[in-house]
Amino acid sequence: MSGKGNKAPSTKIVKPKTKAGIRALERRAPKIVEEPRRSLVLYGNKTSQIIKDVLIDIHKLKGNDSLKYSRKNDDIHPFEVGGEVQLEIHTNRSNCSLFALGSHSKKRPHNLVLGRMFDFRLYDAIEFGVTNFKPIREYPGSIVAQLGNKPSFIFVGEAFESNPVLKQTRSLLLDYFRGRQIEHLNLKGLDRVIFVTHAPLAAVAGASADGGVHARGVQQQQQPKLFFRQYSVKFKKSGTKVPRVELTEMGPHMDLDIRRRKAPPVDLEKDAMTQPKVAPKKQKNVAGDVLDGKVGRIYMPKQNVETMALNKMKGLKRERRESKAAAAAEGNAGGDGEDGRRSKRTRKGAPADE
């Protein structure tokens, strides 16, 4: 189809012409210490009310680090060849490295896709079927998480360490919901727990771990099912330093059937796992010595000690009082009469008569 309304957006790189544009590109350029990862929430071609509620709750869990589009998107298909182009354009414009896409169809009802981007290219994605969903609004209003607090994660099941599908799912969920990375955390900041477990992995004939079917009917594991729960944490008095912990379900409550997944390409995964080396900042006037270790040079301005205002000690005041009393005693020892008066005039500074 051709037409002005269906014209694909251009991906041509335009050089900035203003200082503000240059600064904006510098802020979005790759950094050694990255900024908090933002999430983009999108609607597909068709969505059900359940998927709309799921995307609203995901948007709430991310808080200020999430951007939600309100219009539907027809051309986003992450698991088809060329279907990720529009998604990469939207994430690049919004400066988001995570995305959540909701859709609904007869073949895949209540479909939720979570994925990650690297360098604004599709890194990986997992498709879930949402069942047994209960939104946050159906829980009591008193159970509310504070904005900016960190959640704890609990993944129950040995398959999260051995199954490649569940390992990728755990990594994706951790990246998506853990929030901002911090160095120190107050105990009261842990006010919620995200609890994820999987159903027993039963082997079925002919089903592969990737969701395909083998012609020879080899025994393979079926796609696992996850149970996603979130609980509110309350600390109660226990009589000791360690508080007693109570968990109350706060939503969202949903079961996730893993459908399709897209593993990261080998070359893209290698680039994403590369850790850049941070060059240490050079310190001025500092050198190393074998014996003394770290040696520095300090430049101090010349100080005039004579004009410095110093505190007068009490001991000096006592010496002045003692010397004054001794001088008065010598004056009194001179006697009365002319000699006494002469000594007084002498102390006052008047010349003595010859």
Q: Would you mind describing this structure in some detail?
A:
By secondary structure, the protein is α+β, with helices and mostly antiparallel strands. The chain has a domain at 34-273. The protein is 26% helix and 27% strand. The protein has helices at 19-28, 49-62, 85-94, 159-162, 164-177, 266-273, 314-332, 337-348; strands at 39-43, 66-72, 98-103, 111-118, 121-134, 151-156, 192-198, 203-205, 219-221, 225-236, 244-249, 253-262, 286-289, 293-296. The strands form three sheets. Strands 1, 2, 3, 4, 5, 6, 7, 10, 11 and 12 form a ten-stranded mixed sheet that branches. The protein has a two-stranded antiparallel sheet with strand order 8-9. The protein has a two-stranded antiparallel ribbon with strand order 13-14. Strand 10 and strand 11 (244-249) form a beta hairpin. The longest helix has 19 residues, at 314-332. It is elongated, with a radius of gyration of 38 Å. 18% of the residues are buried.
